[in-house]
Amino acid sequence: MLKKISNKFSLILAFMMILSICQIPAVASGDFTDVPSTFWAYTEITEAVNKGITNGYADGTFKPRNSVTNAHFCAFLARAFYADEYVDGTKSPWYKVYTDVLDEHGILDETTLSKDFNSNINKPINRYDMAQMMYHILKDKNAKMPSNAEMAAARNAIGDWDGVPAEYRGAVSLCYAMGVLNGQSDGNFGGNNLMNRGQGCVVVYRLTQKIETGSTGIEPSVPEKPEEPKQPSKPSSGTQTLSNGKAVTEENVAALLEELKDKYPHKGYYDVSKSYYFAAMNANGHDCAALAFMVSDDIFGTEATLYSHQNYESIKLGDIIEQKDENGNSVHWAVVNEFGVEPSGKRYVTTVSGGPTGKISWTYTYYPENMDNETIWSRYNK
Hints:
There is one protein chain. This protein is α+β, with helices and mostly antiparallel strands. It has two domains: 21-213, no CATH class; 250-378, Alpha-Beta Complex (endopeptidase fold (from Nostoc punctiforme)), CATH 3.90.1720. The protein has twelve helices and eight strands. The strands form two sheets. The chain has a six-stranded antiparallel β-sheet. A two-stranded antiparallel ribbon has the order 1-2. Helix 2 (42-50) packs across helix 10 (197-213) and helix 8 packs across helix 9.
């Protein structure tokens, strides 16, 4: 009898340990109190949780700004790309099932884990090692590689290329050329900067999309090494007109926005495989940036100059909102299409914007009072 009880207790204990190791999600995706639908990485975090790549915490949060360790990023990658090659809970420590399968495929080669595994496994991962692991996965999964010209363009677009260590250069240029990792807003790659949980979900999402579609490398989803927008040498004379020849007023901009709803219908799609050259910024836009730049040119014309500011109380219809993450990296671009006030008195703006799949939305919402790291690009007469 005692033996039966002991065996039963052992089974229960083993089951509890497996639950702990597998990290069953604490809350359903989309229910995280710190990841609202307007959060810059909402789609990617939701996708990662739905697919069991990661999960939230018992208190209902996701903590997207928490650093992601080498161990956890290895778990992300193994769950996303090699889920049929391991069994959770069969090895100790918890991460060994993931690192072992990655090591078998050469994913950890030339990273800090290949040099000193035990010292680095629980340290936050930096952009260099993240790029290296992603590079090996792209190769292992036979993803279609960018052309030599695209690789060269990526290298030329990275401001701190000369400082990239030799062992990481292939990975950095490939990931940048394919758009699975972007440069920072200052034009540099910043390989020693640490990555967080939200950013980890984003890059895994991009990596999955690239491998599943098998498309050739799409350049970064924000302008490559964006240059400072061209400023007029002296204040505008006020003679600038909109693309339809009418005066630059919010009323006329509103009318053009209504017309553009037919060209870019809500829940419709645009071609994310093509970039768009935005003369006002002397840069190529990709993904959401491409749509924002196209809409802006459709309103103001390709010759209109622009200037930037961070006075969120003076946002106008047709202005471009450049949203950034906490590290200053551009993560989303959208064009203001409507203002509103909630019953509570809280002011909001809705925008037309694109997503990573090319789906168009005219209802993406920002609250000016909550903005703190966004840049407003305006093409109105100064």
